[in-house]
């Protein structure tokens, strides 16, 4: 196993972009898995997209200026103030906030959001609204988000950018979509961070490795914050393009030498949010598009390691952000790595070992909070368990959609989906596992259910969004399999992704 020794940074830091401490570990996992299996994930890295080199570029102290800032819409808040904000309570509708997230994150903003003294409260309010609309368990995020926003707001180089992000969040939270004005703002923000990433990548690494990793994490922080807006409002193609830029920055932020794979378990068990977030995005984009991962990973796997990840879910896990259990992310990556082991797919003992031990992987659901939301969250995570089975059989086992094991796994998935009423919770967090399980859907009834549930999520209904592209990909798979008189196979997903996104 490749070991890593990332540098430690003081835990007093409130900037997520500079938090790099991690836990190094070594587990004898081979005693649990079938013998003779190499578990290093070696996927081709996609080269960085680099424009011209900016000599003397300092990624910590430099900032790109958004073009034509003066031409922004008049309803965009740009007022800033160094003064302490005031609490000015007004009546709020709490119907969409049964767990009280808004009150924990911020005081209620004054009615005049353009007043300088109210800018920070307005920004915090926008972030809280965004968390309610997009975060799987917002209660887990509230204090971390507050600290990050205040840190970014206190910096001259990031304040205006934070305000612009808040404006996009505010519109999305109200409409679950953004208008043309906010699309323009977001496009400028995306271009800004892509240029930052390209220039950082083109800059030779610092002679001090710890300093270079801190610079990389600072750059990655801005890139992933903007990426979270893209996932909700832009196409798969646009999101992939941003990952093109972010991947080499992430790699510079890792402690392993460039010629070595990145230890995925070390990433999932360390405290840096951005490193964990990118690795999860990387694995998820691979399993939902059929594309390779951007980064070469070394993937240890055992039930003991899953238990260790489970035990730290409340402190460093990211299940609360996306609804993806970190243990399943590790298992997906392990299955991908096994596909590169000769004859692993023909190893019935290996497939049996995974399907037998999958039910023993524990997932966490917070006992606090709204009980109705808690049920939806449990359904989402259990749907991921069935999505793992579909992926296992169709990817490692190379089974087609008519294979009895695949049919059984899909049946369990659909039973859970139909067991809860359509609604934003849980459907806003179900369309990602639906994109995995949907490859195996052959019955018209199942296809209709998946189509309706995904398109029932407001942000998935608009063309040119990730969720809408997912439906187009599934429709392509189903139509080609039907027209060719055969069951779908996993390679159909990669073809569908290319036909829909051009990537």
From TrEMBL:
Pfam families: Fungal_trans_2
InterPro entries in the record: Fun_TF
Domain of life the protein comes from: Eukaryota
Protein name as annotated: Fungal zn(2)-cys(6) binuclear cluster domain protein, putative
């Amino acid at each position: 196993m490749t070991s890593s020794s990332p540098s430690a940074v003081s835990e007093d830091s409130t900037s997520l972009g500079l938090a790099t401490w991690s836990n190094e570990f070594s587990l004898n996992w081979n005693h649990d898995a079938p013998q003779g299996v190499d578990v290093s994930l070696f996927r081709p890295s996609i080269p960085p997209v680099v424009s011209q080199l900016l000599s003397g570029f300092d990624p910590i102290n430099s900032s790109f200026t958004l073009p034509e800032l003066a031409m922004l819409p008049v309803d965009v808040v740009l007022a800033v103030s160094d003064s302490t904000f005031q609490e000015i309570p007004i009546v709020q509708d709490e119907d969409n906030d049964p767990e009280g997230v808004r009150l924990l994150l911020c005081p209620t903003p004054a009615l005049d959001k353009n007043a300088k003294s109210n800018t920070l409260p307005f920004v915090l309010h926008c972030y809280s609204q965004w968390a309610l609309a997009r975060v799987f368990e917002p209660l887990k995020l509230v204090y971390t988000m507050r600290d990050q926003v205040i840190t970014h707001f206190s910096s001259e180089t990031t304040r205006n950018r934070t305000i612009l992000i808040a404006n996009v969040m505010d519109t999305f939270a109200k409409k679950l979509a953004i208008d043309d004005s906010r699309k323009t703002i977001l496009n400028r923000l995306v271009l800004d961070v892509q240029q930052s990433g390209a220039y950082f990548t083109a800059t030779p690494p610092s002679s001090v490795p710890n300093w270079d990793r801190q610079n990389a994490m600072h750059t990655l922080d801005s890139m992933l914050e903007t990426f979270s807006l893209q996932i909700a409002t832009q196409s798969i193609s646009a999101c992939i393009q941003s990952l093109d830029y972010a991947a080499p920055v992430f790699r510079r932020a890792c402690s392993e030498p460039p010629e070595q794979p990145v230890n995925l378990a070390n990433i999932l068990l360390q405290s840096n949010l951005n490193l964990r977030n990118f690795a999860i995005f990387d694995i998820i984009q691979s399993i939902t598009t059929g594309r390779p991962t951007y980064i070469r990973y070394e993937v240890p796997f055992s039930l003991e390691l899953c238990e260790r990840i489970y035990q730290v879910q409340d402190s460093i896990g990211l299940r609360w952000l996306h609804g993806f259990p970190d243990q399943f992310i590790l298992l997906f990556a392990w299955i991908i790595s096994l596909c590169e082991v000769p004859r692993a797919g023909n190893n019935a003992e290996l497939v049996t070992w995974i399907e037998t031990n999958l039910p023993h992987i524990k997932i966490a659901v917070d006992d606090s909070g709204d009980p109705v939301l808690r049920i939806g969250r449990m359904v989402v995570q259990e749907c991921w368990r069935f999505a793992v089975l579909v992926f296992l059989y169709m990817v490692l086992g190379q089974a087609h959609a008519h294979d009895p094991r695949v049919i059984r796994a899909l049946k369990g998935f659909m039973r859970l989906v139909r067991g809860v009423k359509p609604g934003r919770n849980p459907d806003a967090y179900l369309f990602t596992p639906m994109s995995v399980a949907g490859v195996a859907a052959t019955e018209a009834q199942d296809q209709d259910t998946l189509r309706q549930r995904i398109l029932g999520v407001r942000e998935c209904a608009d063309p040119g969004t990730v969720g809408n592209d997912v439906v187009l990909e599934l429709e392509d798979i189903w139509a080609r399999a039907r027209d060719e008189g055969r069951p779908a196979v996993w390679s159909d997903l990669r073809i569908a992704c290319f036909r829909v996104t051009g990537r």
